[in-house]
């Protein structure tokens, strides 16, 4: 299912480069500020993908899934900027956000198909 600039494969690169950036940061012993700002970029881009899903592509499930992802990336920004007091909460948000979109995707598709 190719969708031009809003292809799900292209959006997947946001995840790939986030993991790559964080991994290289940890392995290289670099500061986390750059990864934090990269997470801000990813969160803003994910909002754009969500907008495209709702308004341009007319695909609400695609929009809902992408709307759920900026939330944890904003927390990754706060961790990258050394907001240590949010560490435990960010971990829980990441754990929940890791499986909720998959569950939501199946449910939203069924609801949209029923109408």
TrEMBL record:
Q: Which UniProt keywords apply?
A: Cell membrane, Membrane, Transmembrane, Transmembrane helix, Transport
Q: Which residues form a coiled coil?
A: none
- Key word Phosphoprotein present: no
Q: Which domain of life is it from?
A: Bacteria
Q: Which membrane topology term applies here? A: Multi-pass membrane protein
InterPro entries assigned: AmiSUreI_transpt, AmiSUreI_transpt_sf
Its main subcellular localisation, reduced to a broad class, is membrane
Membrane-crossing segments per the record: 12-30, 63-81
The record's subcellular locations are: Cell membrane
Question: Which family is it part of?
Answer: Belongs to the AmiS/UreI family.
Name assigned to this protein = AmiS/UreI family transporter
Biological source species: Microtetraspora glauca
């Amino acid at each position: 299912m190719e969708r031009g600039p809003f292809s799900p494969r292209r959006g997947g690169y946001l995840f790939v480069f986030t993991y790559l950036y964080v991994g290289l940061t940890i392995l290289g012993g670099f500061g986390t500020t750059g990864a934090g700002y990269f997470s801000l970029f990813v969160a803003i881009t994910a909002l754009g993908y969500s907008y495209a899903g709702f308004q341009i592509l007319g695909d609400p499930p695609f929009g809902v899934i992408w709307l759920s992802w900026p939330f944890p990336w904003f927390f990754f920004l706060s961790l990258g900027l050394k907001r240590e007091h949010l560490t435990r909460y960010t971990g829980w948000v990441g754990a929940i956000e890791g499986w909720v979109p998959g569950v939501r995707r199946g449910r939203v598709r069924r609801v949209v198909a029923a109408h």
